[in-house]
Amino acid sequence: MDRAAVLSGLGTWLPPRVVTNDDLASELDTSDEWIRSRTGIGRRHVAEPGMATSDLAVEAGRRALKSASLDTVDAVIVATTTPDRPCPGTAPLVAAQLGLDTVAAFDVGAVCTGFLYALATANGLIAAGTAHTVLVIGADVYSSILDPQDRSTRAIFGDGAGAVVLRAGAPHEAGALGPLVLGSDGTGSELIMVPSGGSRDPVRAATVQQADPYFRMAGKSVFRHAVERMAEAALDAVAQTGWEAGDIEVFIAHQANLRIMHAVADRMQLPRSRFPVHLDRVGNTAAASIPLAMADAVTSGALRPGQRTVAAAFGGGLTWGACTFRWPDVHPV
Ligand code: COA
Q1: The dihedral sign for the CA sequence 76, 78, 84, 88
Q2: 243 and 298 in a common domain
Q3: What span, in angstroms and rounded, lies between the C-alpha atoms of 317 and 262?
Q4: Beta 4-13 vs 160-169: how paired, if at all?
Q5: Among 9, 109, 114, 254, whose CB has the most other CB atoms within 10 angstroms?
Q6: What does each C-alpha distance from 262 to 16, 33, 136, 164, 192 come to in angstroms?
Q7: pLDDT per 10-residue tile (average), the chain, 333 residues
Q8: Which residues surround ligand 1 with Cβ inside 6 Å?
Q9: Are residues 191 and 312 part of one domain?
Q10: What residue's CA is closest to ligand 1, atom 40?
Q11: Which of 146, 169, 192 is the last residue of a domain?
Q12: How would you classify the pairing of strands 75-79 and 104-108?
């Protein structure tokens, strides 16, 4: 393939309100010590009531366009599990609010792997010549689907948005996406789910009392699957690129739990120091996690131009994915 999708812009946005572990402990049976030692998370950002996923996505998208020095793109893809509404998609609204006229715009839903699935989709649009430039946004407002009484999910998730611009370029350029490895296992669909509100269990006035509209997660099983699948996907992508595992200089991991990241590092026999950590300040931001972690790593100096990088994620579905690239000279806005 002589036409590649090249990373050429990066933007992020977090809602201003910060919720610390101590804030959670003031209303739930938990503690800063428990959350830090079991997850590595210290605080997270939470959207104000009335703030929807598109609001975050527009801010991150605007910044990614600025980072890429572009006014427009040919397509907008929004990866999210918390769309503004079940129908229509969130991306057309985001495109309109960014002033992008009538460009192609659609959502991708692969839970916490959504951003990588959206990258793969954009990669395909560019490879086929359907688009020359694509804005890929991962945005989620998980606070809108968390059970206020569920200490295990409220401790983990935060709200946020991150976006990249991909442009058509050459495979040898820094920033060109390498092989994208994607996978799923629907036999585990009940390990992470929102039970009600879809066609399986529609919320109707007569049954609304029995409905469960909240995000549910079997934490222990998810933990095990996440470690295995992220490591396998990353190794597969690395092998397809022609690298050895030890060649990975920076591993941008989905920021779900610090213990998951350490277990992936140990399994791949990589130093834990090659896994930049962002979740201590933002928690698990679902589809926004990978671009937010990339931006934080660039800002801190942990991710530098030319470095051999892997991004890998795992999420509900179950879904997982990984992708390789050398980091380009791109600065987050
Ligand atoms: N504060 C205090 N106790 C908590 C707690 C919290 N925030 N959350 C859970 N607990 C409790 C549980 O209720 C349970 O109590 P019990 O033994 O009385 O029933 C106990 O801690 C142990 O629960 P368990 O689920 O076995 O703990 P864990 O060590 O597996 O940690 C998670 C829980 C959720 C942090 C962990 O399983 C995890 O991170 N899983 C992966 C989640 C994830 O990454 N999801 C997103 C994938 S994209």
Answers
A1: positive
A2: yes
A3: 23
A4: antiparallel
A5: 114
A6: 29, 19, 28, 26, 22
A7: 92 98 97 98 97 98 98 98 97 98 97 98 97 98 97 97 98 96 98 95 88 94 96 98 97 98 97 98 98 98 98 98 98 96
A8: 30, 34-35, 38-39, 112, 151-152, 155, 217, 219-220, 222-223, 226, 256-257, 260, 284, 314-315
A9: yes
A10: 219
A11: 169
A12: parallel
Residues 312 and 221 sit within 8 Å (Cβ to Cβ): no
Residue type, 116: L
Q: How far apart are CA 213 and CA 197, in angstroms?
A: 6
Q: Which of 38, 50, 2, 43 is nearest to 22 (CA)?
A: 43
- Looking at the structure, tell me whether residues 199 and 163 fall in a common domain: no
Active site residue 323: no
Instruction: Select from 19, 24, 152 the residue to mutate for testing ligand 1; criterion: most ligand atoms less than 8 Å from CB.
Output: 152
Task: Establish whether 254 is a catalytic residue.
Answer: yes
Q: What is the DSSP string of 281-332?
A: HH-B-GGGHHHHHHHHHHHHTSS-TT-EEEEEEEETTTEEEEEEEE--S---
Q: Do 184 and 311 belong together in one domain?
A: yes
Classify strands 160-169 and 308-315 as parallel, antiparallel or unpaired.
Answer: unpaired
Q: Count structural domains, the chain.
A: 2
Q: Domain ends where: 169, 203, 237?
A: 169
Range(s) of the domain holding residue 97: 4-169
- The CATH number assigned to the domain holding 201 equals 3.40.47.10
3-state secondary structure of 277: coil
Please give the pLDDT value at position 206: 84
Give 47's DSSP letter: P
Which among 112, 123, 257, 323 is annotated as catalytic?
112
112 is catalytic: yes
Domain assignment present for 141: yes
Strand bridging mode 250-253 / 308-315: parallel
> Is 275 found in the same domain as 314?
yes
Helix axes 114-127, 289-300, angle to 10 degrees: 90
